[in-house]
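Reposting from the mailing list since nobody answered there.

I have sequence plus structure tokens for a pair of proteins and want to know whether others read the tokens the same way I do. The first protein:
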Amino acid sequence: MNVLTVVSHPRTNSLTFAVADRFVQGLHAAGHETEVLDLHRSGFDPVLWEADEPDWSVGRKTYSLEVEKEIERMKKHDALAYIFPIWWYSMPAMLKGYIDRVWNNGYAYGTGKLHHRQVLWLGLAAASVEHFEKRDYDKMIELQLNVGIANYAGIPNSKVEILYDTLNDKQGHSEKLLTHAYDLGLHYSELSGDVTK
């Protein structure tokens, strides 16, 4: 597969970027190709302006040059991966702005659907799995990403994977998270998620 890996974090020395690096290593070890898009360093503007709010009555939509460039980038790949910290039980504003602008009406939904067959949403959470499960935050995130975004845009296979306790400083914990990220890349083609739940 040719996977577009999108990373969203303001700091390159973050665990998020270390996870992304291991994930990419796993992809390469499995024979996949990937392009890494660092949203912050790319200079991407997450703010949706008039140019990317097309007239719904027009058949062929024309977007801003920045968004057209990102749409062309997406078209070169047959699968997707998004790696990000979970803030306020959701994705960061930078990544949400990317989805808002690039997964746009006429391209990702409406008169068009994405051609990608698979997407992995890899989130990093400072809280524990018990904290997330107590109020079903994990299920809420899965529903939003798998059904509200991926399924709506026509992607049949969407999976949310959360790495918990990212601030845990116990010896070996960070390495376990990184190993898991590597395994997700290594077995990317085997991932399956039911977007109809």
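The second protein, same order (residues first, tokens after):
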Amino acid sequence: MASSLLALIDDIATLLDDVSILAKVAAKKTAGVLGDDLALNAQQVTGLNADRELPVVWAVAKGSFINKAILVPAALAISAFAPWAVTPLLMVGGAFLCYEGAEKLAHKLLHSRQEIEAERQVLTAALADPAVDLVALEKGKIKGAVRTDFILSAEIIAITLGTVAGTDFITRVGVLSLIAIVMTVGVYGLVAGIVKLDDFGLFLSRKAGAARAFGHAILKAAPWLMKGLSVAGTAAMFLVGGGILVHGVPPLAHALEAWAEGAAHAVVMFLLNALVGVIAGAIVLGFVTLGQRILRGRAATA
């Protein structure tokens, strides 16, 4: 009896250890998505009244938990009944990541700073206008952020599923559940900190001495932090998406591995994955743009 109990405890401990190790691996692989996840969600809630920022973040976080409550069982079902679909789904997710990165770059290159600033001024004017329904505006921001979260959560779950595809079902349940919870709490905890960073800086700037100087430094650094997250997130989309595509095409992976042999192998592969991501993103963006133009042309002639 005692030996059976110890064996059971050992099995549970081993399972938990496997879950912990695989969760760490999956977390590293999905870390690239998180930079963009943070930036996008922080941008979604900027522009709201200060006293409503945290309630909005909480509302989006609840939506994120609902998203993952849908995605995790769906991923487990796929891994159990259609494991052959894991790699194609990862490839689709990788291509979509590259497309998102290319779309961001295209938006920045094709739109001037004046146009982007004009969009921000329209939002600021709407917030100051008493005739504008701020409740509807807030709900719209929440819905938009939850939609964004669903896409990014699907990418994170797909990458994690690819990491644990060869393990037993219980381990897959543990890793996917752990990643879903940790990523949601971590992302939205950081989003809450980011959106309130300027308020914290303003609070310190009203103090005396070193606290005041630190507060001013935070106020100056906050906009740059947002820009840095956005840049890092876009770069991560190409790196992660390109890496998924490279590993999903064995001949391409072998060719790049052979070409990148040498002391700087890791750095070269890093850059090659990014290059593949940029090229793939540009191709997908081209097809999507062409498709949209064709559909608009047909709608106009109908």
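Reply #1 (J.P.):
I read it the same way you do. The longest helix spans residues 2-45.
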